[in-house]
Amino acid sequence: MPKLLVALILLLLAGCGPVEVREQRALDGETIQVVATIGMISDAVERVGGDRVEVEGLMGPGVDPHLYKASEGDLRRLERSDVIFFGGLHLEAKMADVLERISGQRATQAVTDAMPRDRLLTPAQFQGQFDPHVWFDVELWSFAVEQIRDRLAALDPGSAELYRENAASYLTELEALDRYVAEQSRRVPARQRVIVTAHDAFNYFGRAYGFEVRGLQGISTAAEAGAGDVQSLARFIAERRIPAAFVESSVSPRTIEAVQEAVRSRGWNVRIGGSLFSDAMGSPGTPEGTYVGMVRHNVDTIVGGLLG
Ligand SMILES: [Zn+2]
User: Which domain holds residue 97?
Assistant: First the structure.
């Protein structure tokens, strides 16, 4: 082989960087070390990756991803990992710098990358950004599962068939879940299909299953609700005689209780219809500690709350 060609090949190989080195090592049958941000992503990676992956989730039950900052321990986990899956669309707003920096050293994947942009919502209060709460449209979330499948297969082609099989069986479960949510939602008469919560996590849910959604804090919990927001939401609830509002597991119930109080002073009584899982799943080992379980819990709570 001519010397120049050898030099060129060596140069090309040297340019591949640490990500490719890790991708090569994963081929040797080692378990793939995955770090995921929110629980819904951890769950999907575990389902698709099976025994081939070891998943460390950064954000547990009740943790708000909009406000979450990476700890020292998280940084070490990220640096040790083979691949990092995150939501993207500014969901992990306070981790943007860390994720950007680590992307130079580790394989990183936003699970929303393959979602068709025309299916993403851009509500006015998000000021031109996409709404990141895509997991509440179960069909849309299937794109995230496919993205995880494809990235794992690229990192570890030897197990690609396993990832395809696992993903196919999980996607079948998600199709059944999507049908369940649609069926349950239809039990609520159309004019009563209103979800009032503390922050705007449910826009995708609303679009997919036919609910009007009213939140207090806008897209991210980082923006505090003002007194004017509380009053205008209270007026809406009293005028529409909405029977129930909902609290969320990862957001303080204080704001929605303030709304309840303001509604009462307008001569209407709105119940707290229950607690919804919005940006985090329930405790591990409980039904709500999985994506399927949290979505079922939410629709059951919403339908039960609105039907009284
Ligand atoms: Zn949120």
Answer: 3-181
Centroid of ligand 1 to alpha carbon of 251 (angstroms): 9
Distance CA 222, CA 266 (A): 29
CB atoms within 10 A of CB 14: 8
**Do 195 and 76 have their domain in common?**
no
Q: Which two tokens stand for residue 177?
A: 């879940």
Sign of CA dihedral 136, 190, 123, 126: negative
CA distances from 295 to 9, 53, 136, 184, 282 (A): 51, 24, 7, 12, 11
pLDDT of residue 2: 52
- Side chain identity at 60, as an amino acid letter? G
Q: What is the CATH number of the domain that holds 46?
A: 3.40.50.1980
Cα of 250 from ligand 1 centre, angstroms: 9
Residues 122 and 16 in one domain: yes
**Would you list the DSSP string of 63-112?**
--TTT----HHHHHHHHH-SEEEE--TTTTGGGHHHHHHHTTTSEEEETT
Q: What is the pLDDT of residues 227-246, one digit of tens each?
A: 778 888 999 999 999 999 99
156 and 231 together in one domain: no
Residue 250 has pLDDT above 90, yes or no: no
Q: How far apart are the first and last CA of the chain?
A: 79
Q: Ligand 1 centre and the CA of 162: distance in Å?
A: 33
* Residue 155 Cα to ligand 1 middle (Å): 30
Q: Are residues 25 and 83 in the same domain?
A: yes
Neighbour count for residue 224 (Cβ, 10 Å): 10
Number of domains forming the structure of the chain: 2
Best CA proximity match to 132, nearest among 68, 45, 228, 212: 68
- 259 pLDDT exceeds 50? yes
